[in-house]
Amino acid sequence: MTVESETDELDSTASPLAHFGNEVRIERELLSMSRAELGKEATCSPSLVAKIETGDRVPQLSFAETCDRVFPHARGRFVRLWPLALRYAFPPWFRRYVELEWKATTVHMFHPLLLPGLVQTREYATAILKEGRPENLEDLVTARLERQHILQRERPTRLWLVLHERALRNVVAGREVMGRQLGRLLELAETPTHRVQIIPDDGRQRGPMASPFGLLGFSEGADVVHVDGFPRGYVLAEAPDVADAHDAYDLLKTLAAPLDKSAELIASISKDCYS
Description:
This protein is α/β, with parallel strands linked by helices. The chain is 49% helix and 11% strand.
């Protein structure tokens, strides 16, 4: 048995990830295309193609787009399958949230100590996720970064982010990583679609002692709340909970610096602390 035929007996119904990989393998073999050839088209290594085909790695959206371009009968199938495969990379309790986030038209987030996954650079995300010593670190990083496509697609989700200044000064993985991370945050702050506000640290506790949380809004249907926590986060959809979250978020926005002053604060901290 050759290396490239070892996946023949894989159960493609085991997960959406396995199904995605099996479909890639079938289409590739129909074209008598090697993994190296597909990898060249997708700008990735043959070994990564192999891991995707066996359901051992989460594909990036760009890989799915390549498959739809290269395989003549795909007709957009791989981009349609990709969100299902992506969600499988997350813990079961988080998959429902990812599905909702993908459909959201607006996302409002607050974090007192860290930058949330939707705005993290690869280095920052790797350092944060590595702390938990997961076995599938690469998949978790890929999945976290791929969520960010909602901010960049043709009709992007509108992000409103409120952070405490401590999140900007909390050094993750060193000064260079933080410098690039704050550069990414500043880009978002200067993007007309999005809003970034910083609550200045004046040494006092200001505002609600809130856990990290987010509000998802949709073109149809009621808003929902996601609350970060240990050992897992949870989604709230009851109207009183959603109303309380909106009230808390409105208060946080009033405590934060205006948009232009927040951008200046990000740039100042980046220059003074990480340049």
